[in-house]
């Protein structure tokens, strides 16, 4: 191929080789008459891409010298009249490129295999002799275009590098006398050498100039922007407050007025958005690239080594649009918020809109809009959600009273399902127990609160004064290390109750319908704290562009952290110490671990055999709230037994559930109109599968009459809306063509189903027919039967003819090779433009059809959710059956007692459900019996547990609690037999731990948890306390332990296991009528200081804890162990002969004097008189509780006001058993 020569066409007659550039006015080059201007021009030419070309071309020349290379055309769409990182052949700025594989049948379309030489779009030269060869135009270059090998025109008499430098040289400005070495290299007066040796010399010179060119470019950029962005050196928020000053708002940025005056149109568009999202990484979509600017570009470069350059007067980095989700996930994982600014139209659509409106051509900017702000707690896109469980964003307001108690308004949302919950916590104690329970249950990812003065709350009736230090301590200790706290300005950003009412009415989230009942109750409450919390949450979601898409579903429900009326209450300490939801770990490890790692070994992981995402979320709620009603528990157990007995039904259910997508989240996305077509089709397919699954389950039951369906499954199948859902799905399926939807990801209506779509399709058919006719006409006119259409990038339908073919002078030549040339005739050019506009119109029509179809399906949201709820419950029941089958032997169905009364549990050969399957050498099972099965059997309700260190006491406590949770969840338990009366609350005080974040010592944590037990326990509760009192001195700890144990046995009567190492406590309480002393057995070798743990629960008291033996086993040096043993013997000798705790010293008495009763008995009688006085003063309050045998003395309300929680039945029974002989007491 001969060397490329410049075209003789004047520069002003040429335009960029882009379809859209043919219909726009070319810009005039700016005048450059200074050295700075020369440097600017050099920077514009010698960019990183060009420098990379030099290095790549040198390597390519050395490897393939003399080999011809293909060169592909390069097109750029300057949608914003600004350079962009996506300038290249794949940049379409959102418009539809022609795809050859979608060509209409019958049209002649060929793909070129010849070597290409890209030319400027110029009118064709005059016709010449057929044998003459038209001149080859010079290749046109663009910044940021594809690889150098594809952009170079091969030269027959010189290396590729020299050809490229020759093409570049004609575009560089002449160097001044003091110009740079790089300019001199390109502007030498003589022709560039072509021999290999001289080429290598020139290449070496260019390599040496690379560093100089980069330095000049960087210096030019720095000089130009030194003053332009000087204001970023002094960052302030919108109110002028600097970082670190009180009241600073990190979300906003103050942009000086002088800066606005200097901005280009695109800079103004950018900073209008960025100035209100300063703490957010903002991605700007430009064509097929999402770009970061200024500080965000620096973050991308520093965190992920994204290549950073300078464009549009700002630092810039970019990522491909196809990998946007990946990069968003990376930024979110590093703790950044991410905003997405979408391009709402293509350049062609913008021109069409302006022409239709009769407006002047604008500033070149296409319309963009902030469409989403992504935070870890508010992700809704399935591609970004890391797991199936709910992730909550929670808003919190607080008011306090003079006694230290607090009331809270709480609202939280799972953004992926658009499910809102709200609650009011009234008169929470000083330890914020109810709030702690809620936080442990939810584990919120973000907490939105009112920004107070230094985050210290003052008395404020509407909760707009921030949070108290006590609440902050609970938030820091109960939330995870990854929880983000978002502070909003009171009333302006975090709406109070009155503002929330006004905003709800003005926004009309519910389209004129009545407010959801839960929201209406919160608004009508005399203390509308929950409504204020909803206001803070909605205000925050509005800033994230999520409020309407989530709130308009009207999924608002009340939330009770304890649900005491219907479920077994598990408070925060119980959930944590029993590893119900997450294994207790240090905060750093918990933050670094994945959710699966945190759940490993938990009770939830044991039962989580669900097959669907929405079933898993429901099962987690079940695990937090085990059942309390015996009938409901037995109903679940019946289903478990049925699925274990009929494996065909279980297998059919498993196979049907496994492929289901997350329909619940998909329905929320469809309502918001942000659902991908593939996800929409998945939801439809999933609902179809649900319908078939219900039919299959019913058919399986009909085929096995010996095993009828359990009542719960029958009720679920009866509630499944099979007919209505089938009709709704048929209606939606009939609206679009499934084939292109699955293949192309576009919802296309059937012919005749959408008038606008039919109209634009008719227009496209007419244009295609014209193109076919025009091709035949050109073949005749040019006498060239081989003329075909070529589709080159964004210039489709180029008429390709042999290079020697004479064409009219009005034809516009677009590109050529040495063999062929390609043209547009004037009529063809106009038709191609009209066809491009028709394709754009078709795309807009299809977008509108998709929106209408989503809205059409969304009318069936409630119907679809009914089906999802049924399937989710079936999934959970199947999971309980699968979990029951994995417990090993022995395991059994627990027997649930339905009679009302005090608590009772009986487990034979009980094992720990989570530890036993992995225990090396097997797990030692034990029998545990607590309480009375009948009111008069006189059995002990408490166990005083002693034994050696590491003897298994804490494990026994945990396995009993876990077995109770499993039984009331509706699952089998790992025991030979199990009988229990449903427990109403489960309390734990296990393990020694402090709370540095909350500012509480180990003993303070113990006492706070013990106080909650004494306030809320009932005779139907189960309480386990492990070594209470260890955090203080021995005498204080022993005294506290004695008083608490006495209260549990003599005044509350709850089921309890009290583990201790206090020997005097065991001696003092072993004869208590409601207490049974037991211990963990062991075998001791005193000579060798060795102890063998038998892990067997036996009757009696262990008089030693064998701490010295455990110390020796742990590796403590034996001399220290021997010395410690000697000191321990001396201590024991000193206390021998002292009176047992609780027994007063006896004064001298005459022979006929009656013995004084024990101190404990005197305390019990005094307490009886005090309770009688309280009962007498609160008769009116007690009336409502007169028929409740579990109601406290004086009634629930009076007992709460008096901070007394005691029960007549327990008090009287304890006194009778203590004062009378055993035989009389039992009668």
From TrEMBL:
Gene3D superfamilies given in the database record: 1.10.1420.10, DNA repair protein MutS, domain I (3.40.1170.10), MutS, connector domain (3.30.420.110), P-loop containing nucleotide triphosphate hydrolases (3.40.50.300)
GO terms (BP aspect): mismatch repair
CC terms in the record's Gene Ontology section: MutSalpha complex
Xref: SMART domains: MUTSac (SM00534), MUTSd (SM00533)
Biased composition (Polar residues): 1-24
Domain DNA mismatch repair proteins mutS family: 1021-1037
Listed PROSITE patterns: DNA_MISMATCH_REPAIR_2
Protein name per UniProt: DNA mismatch repair protein
Organism lineage string: Eukaryota, Fungi, Fungi incertae sedis, Zoopagomycota, Kickxellomycotina
Gene name in the database record: MSH6
């Amino acid at each position: 191929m001969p060397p490329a020569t410049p075209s003789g066409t004047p520069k002003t007659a040429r335009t960029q080789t882009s379809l859209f550039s043919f219909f726009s006015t070319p810009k005039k080059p700016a005048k450059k008459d200074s050295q700075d201007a020369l440097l600017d021009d050099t920077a514009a030419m010698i960019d990183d891409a060009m420098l990379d070309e030099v290095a790549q071309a040198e390597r390519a020349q050395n490897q393939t010298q003399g080999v011809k290379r293909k060169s592909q055309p390069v097109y750029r769409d300057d949608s914003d009249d600004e350079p962009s990182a996506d300038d290249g052949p794949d940049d379409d700025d959102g418009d539809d490129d022609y795809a050859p594989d979608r060509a209409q049948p019958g049209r002649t379309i060929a793909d070129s295999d010849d070597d290409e030489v890209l030319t400027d779009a110029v009118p064709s030269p005059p016709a010449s002799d057929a044998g003459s060869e038209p001149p080859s135009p010079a290749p046109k270059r663009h910044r940021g275009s594809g690889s150098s090998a594809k952009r170079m025109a091969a030269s027959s008499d010189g290396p590729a590098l020299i050809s490229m430098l020759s093409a570049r040289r004609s575009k560089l400005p002449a160097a001044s006398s003091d110009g740079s070495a790089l300019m001199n290299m390109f502007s030498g007066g003589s022709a560039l050498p072509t021999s290999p040796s001289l080429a290598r010399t020139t290449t070496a010179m260019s390599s040496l100039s690379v560093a100089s060119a980069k330095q000049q470019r960087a210096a030019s950029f720095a000089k130009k922007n030194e003053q332009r962005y000087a204001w970023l050196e002094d960052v302030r928020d919108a109110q002028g407050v600097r970082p670190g000053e009180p009241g600073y708002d990190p979300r906003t940025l103050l942009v000086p007025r002088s800066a606005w005056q200097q901005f280009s149109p695109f800079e103004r568009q950018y900073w209008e958005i960025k100035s209100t999202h300063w703490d957010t990484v903002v991605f700007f979509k430009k064509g097929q690239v999402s770009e970061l600017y200024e500080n965000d570009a620096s973050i991308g470069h520093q965190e992920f080594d994204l290549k950073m350059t300078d464009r549009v007067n700002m630092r810039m980095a970019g990522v491909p649009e196809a990998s946007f989700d990946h990069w968003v996930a990376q930024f979110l994982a590093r703790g950044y918020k991410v905003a997405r600014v979408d391009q709402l139209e293509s350049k062609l659509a913008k021109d069409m809109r302006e022409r239709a409106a009769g407006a002047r051509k604008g500033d070149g900017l296409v319309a963009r809009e902030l469409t989403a702000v992504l935070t870890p707690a508010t992700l809704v896109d399935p591609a970004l959600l890391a797991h199936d469980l709910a992730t909550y964003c929670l808003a919190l307001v607080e008011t306090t009273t003079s006694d230290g108690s607090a009331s809270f308004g709480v609202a939280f949302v799972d953004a992926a399902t658009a499910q809102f919950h709200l609650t009011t916590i009234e008169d929470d104690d000083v330890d914020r127990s109810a709030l702690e329970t809620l936080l442990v249950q939810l584990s919120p990812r973000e907490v939105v609160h009112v920004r107070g003065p230094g985050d210290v709350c003052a008395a404020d009736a509407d909760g707009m004064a921030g949070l108290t230090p006590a609440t902050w301590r609970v938030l820091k200790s109960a939330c995870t290390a990854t929880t983000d706290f978002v502070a909003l300005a009171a009333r302006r950003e975090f709406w109070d109750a009155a503002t929330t009412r006004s905003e709800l009415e003005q926004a009309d989230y519910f389209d004129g319908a009545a407010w959801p009942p839960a929201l209406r109750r919160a608004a009508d409450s005399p203390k509308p704290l929950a409504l204020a919390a909803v206001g803070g949450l909605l205000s925050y979601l509005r800033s994230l562009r999520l409020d309407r898409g989530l709130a308009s579903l009207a999924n608002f429900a009340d939330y009770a952290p304890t649900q005491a009326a219907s479920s077994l209450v598990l408070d925060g300490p119980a959930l944590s110490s029993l590893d119900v939801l997450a294994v207790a770990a240090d905060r750093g490890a918990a933050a670094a671990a994945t959710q699966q790692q945190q759940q490993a070994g938990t009770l939830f992981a044991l039962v989580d055999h669900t097959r669907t995402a929405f079933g898993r979320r429901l099962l987690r709620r079940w695990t937090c709230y085990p059942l309390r009603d015996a009938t409901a528990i037995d109903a679940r157990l019946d289903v478990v037994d049925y699925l274990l007995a009929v494996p065909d039904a279980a297998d059919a259910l498993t196979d049907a559930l496994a492929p289901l997508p997350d329909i619940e989240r998909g329905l929320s996305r469809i309502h918001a109109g942000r659902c991908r077509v593939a996800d929409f089709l998945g939801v439809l397919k999933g609902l179809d599968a649900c319908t078939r699954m219900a039919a299959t389950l019913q058919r399986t039951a009909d085929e096995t009459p010996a095993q009828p369906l359990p009542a719960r499954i029958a009720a679920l199948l009866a509630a499944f809306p099979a007919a209505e859902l089938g009709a709704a799905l048929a209606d939606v399926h009939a609206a679009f063509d499934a084939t292109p939807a699955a293949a192309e990801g576009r919802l296309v209506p059937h012919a005749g189903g959408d008038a606008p779509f039919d109209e634009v399709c008719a227009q496209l058919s007419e244009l295609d027919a014209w193109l076919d006719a025009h091709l035949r006409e050109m073949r005749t006119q040019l006498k060239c039967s081989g003329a075909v259409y070529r589709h080159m990038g964004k210039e489709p339908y180029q008429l390709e003819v042999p290079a020697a073919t004479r064409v009219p002078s009005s034809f516009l030549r677009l590109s050529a090779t040495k063999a062929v040339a390609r043209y547009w005739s004037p009529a063809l050019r106009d038709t191609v433009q009209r066809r491009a506009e028709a394709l754009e119109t078709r795309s807009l029509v299809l977008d509108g059809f998709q929106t209408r179809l989503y809205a059409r399906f969304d009318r069936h949201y409630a119907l679809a959710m009914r089906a999802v709820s049924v399937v989710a419950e079936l999934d959970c029941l199947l999971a309980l059956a699968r979990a029951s089958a994995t417990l090993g032997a022995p395991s059994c169905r627990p027997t649930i007692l339905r009679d009302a009364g005090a608590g009772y549990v009986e487990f034979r050969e009980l094992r720990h459900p989570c530890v036993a399957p992995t225990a090396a050498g097997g797990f030692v099972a034990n029998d545990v019996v607590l309480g009375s099965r009948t009111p008069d059997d006189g059995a002990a309700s408490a166990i005083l547990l002693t034994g050696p260190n590491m003897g298994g006491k804490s494990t026994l406590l945990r396995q009993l609690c876990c077995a109770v949770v499993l039984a009331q969840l509706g699952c089998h338990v790992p025991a030979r037999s199990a009988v229990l009366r449903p427990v109403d609350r489960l309390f734990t005080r296990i393990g020694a731990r402090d709370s540095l974040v909350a500012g509480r010592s180990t003993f303070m944590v113990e006492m706070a948890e013990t106080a909650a037990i004494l306030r809320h326990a009932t005779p139907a509760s189960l309480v386990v306390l492990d070594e209470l009192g260890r955090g203080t001195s021995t005498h204080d700890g022993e005294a506290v332990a004695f008083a608490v144990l006495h209260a549990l046995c003599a005044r509350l009567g709850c089921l309890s296991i009290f583990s201790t190492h206090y020997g005097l406590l065991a001696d003092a309480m072993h004869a208590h009528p409601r207490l049974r002393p037991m211990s963990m057995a062991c075998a001791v070798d005193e000579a060798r200081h060795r102890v063998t743990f038998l892990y067997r629960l036996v009757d009696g008291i262990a008089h030693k804890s064998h701490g010295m033996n455990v110390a020796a086993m742990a590796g403590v040096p034996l001399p220290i162990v021997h010395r410690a043993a000697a000191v321990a013997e001396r201590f024991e000798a000193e206390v021998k002969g002292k009176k047992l705790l609780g027994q007063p010293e006896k004064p001298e008495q005459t022979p006929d004097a009656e013995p004084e009763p024990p101190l404990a008995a005197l305390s019990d009688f005094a307490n009886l008189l005090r309770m009688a006085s309280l009962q007498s003063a609160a008769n009116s309050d007690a009336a409502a509780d007169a028929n409740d045998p579990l109601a406290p003395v004086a009634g629930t309300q009076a007992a709460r006001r008096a901070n007394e929680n005691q029960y007549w039945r327990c008090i009287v029974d304890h006194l009778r058993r203590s004062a009378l002989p055993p035989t009389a007491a039992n009668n």
